């Protein structure tokens, strides 16, 4: 079984994904976690899915706060992505965020930020799936996204034509 887990982990590193920061509040401060397991789930009603390690501090904070936001990062936001991805370190995000309504946080200059109320929480292996009911969406400038592939951050070259 250990070999299957190792190969599964490696196979998932080969799936290129967009990079998001899932934001919540901890100790009255903005807290962000870099997440690639994020997708739209429904348009009616508008729902989004994010998956976080159950043992992550962010997971309990989202459960306690009953809300979170998802900022979709642009190619020039690698520093924010790396800050939210450092294992075992506090992820307070004051220097990366703007505050909306005193609690709804968004990463400055993100491509978009989706503010959600927790609709459902589902345990799944060593992760917790949050289904968020979208309450507000803030659109930023349309530019190239930040991607994650083969355990590295990078950009998508939009100038390539097929």
What keywords describe this structure?
single chain, 162 residues, alpha+beta, Pnp Oxidase, Chain A, seven-stranded antiparallel beta sheet, 12 strands
Describe this structure as you would to a colleague.
By secondary structure, this protein is of the alpha+beta class. The chain has one domain (19-155): Pnp Oxidase, Chain A, CATH 2.30.110. 18% of the residues lie in helices and 48% in strands. The chain has 3 helices and 12 strands; from the N terminus they run H-E-E-E-E-E-H-E-H-E-E-E-E-E-E. The protein has helices at 2-13, 57-65, 78-85; strands at 17-18, 20-26, 29-35, 38-43, 46-53, 67-72, 97-100, 104-107, 112-124, 127-139, 146-149, 152-155. The protein has a 7-stranded antiparallel beta sheet. A 3-stranded antiparallel beta sheet has the order 1-11-12, with no helix packed on it. The longest helix has 12 residues, at 2-13. The protein is globular, with a radius of gyration of 16 Å. The N and C termini lie far apart (41 Å). The model has no long low-confidence stretch (mean pLDDT 86).
Mean pLDDT, rounded to whole units?
A: 86
Residue fraction in strands? over 45%
Shape: globular
Structural class given helices, strands, pairing? alpha+beta
Give the tally of β-strands.
12
Could you give the order of the helices and strands? Answer: HEEEEEHEHEEEEEE
Measured as a percent range, the helix fraction is 10-25%
For the biggest β-sheet, the strand order reads 3-2-6-9-10-5-4
C-alpha termini separation: 41 Å
Number of helices: 3
- C-alpha-based Rg, rounded: 16 Å
Uncertain residue ranges: none
- Any idea what the CATH architecture is? Roll
Q: Which CATH first-tier class would you pick?
A: Mainly Beta
Would you tell me which CATH topology applies? Pnp Oxidase, Chain A
The CATH homology group name: Electron Transport, Fmn-binding Protein, Chain A
Q: Characterize the largest beta sheet: strand count, sense, and whether it forms a barrel.
A: 7 strands, antiparallel
How many domains? The number is 1
